[in-house]
Design brief:
This protein is mostly helical and about 150 residues long. It has helices spanning about 5-15, 20-25, 30-35, 45-55, 60, 90-105, 110-120, 125-150.
Length: about 150
């Protein structure tokens, strides 16, 4: 399902009107409507805000990705997290995979890793919020993975 379809479905499930979400997002209704109609796409920062408003995850809004391509194998050092607000969905997926790899392969503590990235790239409040959301989603995915293996 496309982002625009997911967005509309989640909004309808929440019982909110387009104008209400637009007001919460501090954008005009036409901008929000364009996101729902697929004419425009919001920034990653706005996707994070939408996920919070609609009480869902960014993965759910954007459509979950299966990590199956070797193309995804990028190491954390390959990313310039200072421009995280401009990351595409593909960039976010690759970053998540790199974080998972770093945590599992190199046995790095997730909180230390996140703190290191925040300090290294001098992330502002909004960028930290995006990174926190990404780490939270990585944690959920890893918990699902390990719970699956234990069954």
């Amino acid at each position: 399902m496309l982002f625009s379809q997911n967005l509309k479905k989640k909004r309808q499930e929440s019982g909110l009107k387009q104008q209400e979400i637009a007001d919460m997002m501090e954008v005009n209704r036409v901008t929000y409507t364009n996101w729902e109609n697929g004419k425009r796409e919001p920034t990653l920062e706005n996707v994070v805000k939408l996920a919070k408003i609609l009480k869902t995850t960014t993965d759910n809004l954007l459509g979950q990705t299966i990590y199956s391509k070797v193309d995804l194998l990028r190491f954390l050092d390959d990313f310039d997290v200072s421009n995280i607000k401009d990351f595409t969905k593909s960039d976010v997926d690759k970053l998540k995979f790199a974080i998972m790899f770093e945590i599992t392969k190199n046995k790095v503590n997730a909180l230390n890793l996140k703190d290191d990235l925040i300090l290294k790239y001098k992330l502002d409040k909004d960028e930290r919020e995006i990174l926190n959301t990404i780490f939270s989603e990585v944690q959920d995915e890893m918990n699902d993975l390990f719970n699956f293996k234990l069954r």
